[in-house]
């Protein structure tokens, strides 16, 4: 992707200095509910009811150009403190989702994302399997207090899996713009949504869609 050309195109389209176009991100989180197969991700600040403090939403007068995105999952208490400290996962980590049948969360990654901005459809079914990133450390780390004593070997499951800057993110070859005054429909569609919630305790399982790209402030007024 030629980011310099994209920035210049955005500046020309919205009549704003290229220097004012900044790297940024959007994020919208939702709790998973058994039986709910369609999740609509709302990214406009004025439209999302009961938004989380972890959300990064778009102001009415701004435009965001999406170039990369990632679908991640996590488990946390239903509190601001719990969500703020959440360890976002790029796969159904059985350690992180200890009180969930973790394999069921693969249903999200076997689903697809559809994107319609106003009346134009950019994606009818973007396969979410592209977001699935399973690091080598998922199986755990083996150590022993005394190497020669085999019965002392202990396996420590991994909650903090190895990851890099772009782990779980996919590049959009067909980028799209979300405007603060447009009708944006971005939906995760799953074939089945049974047993997505924790089987015990009070934590909640969440799905998080993060979009990276360029923020054009004041673009709606300029256009």
Secondary-structure element order, N to C: HEEEHHEEEEEEEH
Terminal residue distance? 25 Å
Radius of gyration: 20 Å
Global morphology: globular
Number of helices: 4
Compose a concise summary of this entry:
With 223 residues, the chain is mainly β.
Walk me through the structure:
The protein is mainly beta and 223 residues long. Helices cover 11% and strands 36% of the residues. The protein is built from 4 helices and 10 strands. A 4-stranded antiparallel sheet has the order 1-10-3-8, covered by helices on one side. A 4-stranded antiparallel sheet has the order 2-9-4-5, with no helix packed on it. The longest helix is centred in the N-terminal third of the chain and has 12 residues, at 3-14. The model has no long low-confidence stretch (mean pLDDT 89).
Give the topology.
Layout: H1 3-14, E1 21-31, E2 38-41, E3 63-76, H2 80-84, H3 106-109, E4 112-117, E5 120-127, E6 141-144, E7 153-156, E8 169-179, E9 184-189, E10 204-216, H4 219-222
Antiparallel strand pairs: 1-10, 2-9, 3-8, 3-10, 4-5, 4-9, 6-7
Keywords:
223 residues, mainly beta, four-stranded antiparallel β-sheet, 4 helices, globular
């Amino acid at each position: 992707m030629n980011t310099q050309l994209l920035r210049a195109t955005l500046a020309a389209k919205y009549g704003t200095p290229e220097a004012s176009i900044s790297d940024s991100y959007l994020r919208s989180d939702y709790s998973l509910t058994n039986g709910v197969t369609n999740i609509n991700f709302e990214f406009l600040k004025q439209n999302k009811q009961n938004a989380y403090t972890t959300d990064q939403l778009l102001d009415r007068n701004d435009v965001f150009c999406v170039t990369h995105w990632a679908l991640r999952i996590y488990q946390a208490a239903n509190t601001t403190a719990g969500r703020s400290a959440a360890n976002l996962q790029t796969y159904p980590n059985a350690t992180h989702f200890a009180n969930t049948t973790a394999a069921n969360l693969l249903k999200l990654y076997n689903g697809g994302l559809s994107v319609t901005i106003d009346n134009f459809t950019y994606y009818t079914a973007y396969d979410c399997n592209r977001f699935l990133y399973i690091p080598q450390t998922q199986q755990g780390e083996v150590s022993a207090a005394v190497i020669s004593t085999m019965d002392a070997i202990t396996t420590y499951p991994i909650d903090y899996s190895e990851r890099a800057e772009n782990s779980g993110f996919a590049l959009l070859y067909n980028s799209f713009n979300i405007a603060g005054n447009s009708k944006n429909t971005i939906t995760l569609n799953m074939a089945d949504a049974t047993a997505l919630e924790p089987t015990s305790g009070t934590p909640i399982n969440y799905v998080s869609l993060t979009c990276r790209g360029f923020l054009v402030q004041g673009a709606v007024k300029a256009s």
